Amino acid sequence: MRFQFTKWQGLGNDFVLVDCFKETITDCNQLAVAVCDRHFGIGADGLVTISSSAVADFHMRIFNSDGSEAEMCGNVTRCVARYVYENGLTDKTKISLETGAGIIRSELIFESGKVANARVDMGEPKLTRGVIPVAGQADDTAIHIPVEAAGVLYYGTCVSMGNPHCVIFTDDAAGIDLPLVGPGLEKHELFPKKINVEFVQVLDAENIRMRVWERGAGVTLACGTGACAAVAASVLNQKTKRQVTVHLDGGKLFVEWGDNNHIFMTGPAIEVFRGEYRL
């Protein structure tokens, strides 16, 4: 199999984008494992396909580096929005994307006539156990609940941003051994569809530090949906205001929980290189 691709990153959370208006690929789950391998493939956190949609401007599918399919990813949403605009697939600057979590809308932000950032309407955070999902009564929330991993008892607040997240507050985000505790939390019996895990250190009412273990990908430099979940959890636990700068290993995202209950995320999207993949 041969196909053209372009490599993008949003704060170091990197993806291989395939334009399916031009290219044909099959068995994306298995292909993602090969493509994302950082030694024998292109290297990425995920493989993303872009195609037509009957309900939005474009259809985006996201395959994690372990071959599983993700419902949603905030960082790649910004990348796809910029790609389709700069490559002439649309002249819109407000772009809707069909995802596994529903329709997500992005708006490109320009500086000096060039795309500088993208602002994404990530929708409403879902807070009940049945929707996230978390084991327990379906209508209950999961705020400050106990969960144990690697012999340590943590307390997490669970939020869905179209995909599930468990946000754990800590006094020292840099000191967390993510490869040690991440797998046990991701696959904990409380989380029937596994879960993304964010360790969050509150710096002040408008700034938090976050590190992430992503479901299906492991340690990544940034997670857009995770940053949104972290802000929601920070507000729910009365730790921050509703407009917060999230400091990740790969850079900063600005996240706002609006009066309409939607969460908005603003950050960069950068093309790294293009090439041809040969399997």
TrEMBL record:
It is found in: Cytoplasm. GO terms for molecular function: diaminopimelate epimerase activity. Pfam families: DAP_epimerase (PF01678). Substrate binds at N13, N64, G74, N75, N163, N196, E214, R215, G224, T225. The gene is dapF. PANTHER family: DIAMINOPIMELATE EPIMERASE, DIAMINOPIMELATE EPIMERASE, CHLOROPLASTIC. It comes from Propionispora vibrioides. It comes from the Bacteria. Catalyzes the stereoinversion of LL-2,6-diaminopimelate (L,L-DAP) to meso-diaminopimelate (meso-DAP), a precursor of L-lysine and an essential component of the bacterial peptidoglycan. This is Diaminopimelate epimerase. Pathway: Amino-acid biosynthesis; L-lysine biosynthesis via DAP pathway; DL-2,6-diaminopimelate from LL-2,6-diaminopimelate: step 1/1. The active site is at C73 (proton donor), C223 (proton acceptor). Keywords: Amino-acid biosynthesis, Cytoplasm, Isomerase, Lysine biosynthesis. The keyword Isomerase applies. The keyword Lyase does not apply. Homodimer. The record marks H165, E214 as: Could be important to modulate the pK values of the two catalytic cysteine residues. It catalyses: (2S,6S)-2,6-diaminopimelate = meso-2,6-diaminopimelate. Its EC number is 5.1.1.7. GO terms for cellular component: cytosol. GO terms for biological process: lysine biosynthetic process via diaminopimelate. Belongs to the diaminopimelate epimerase family.
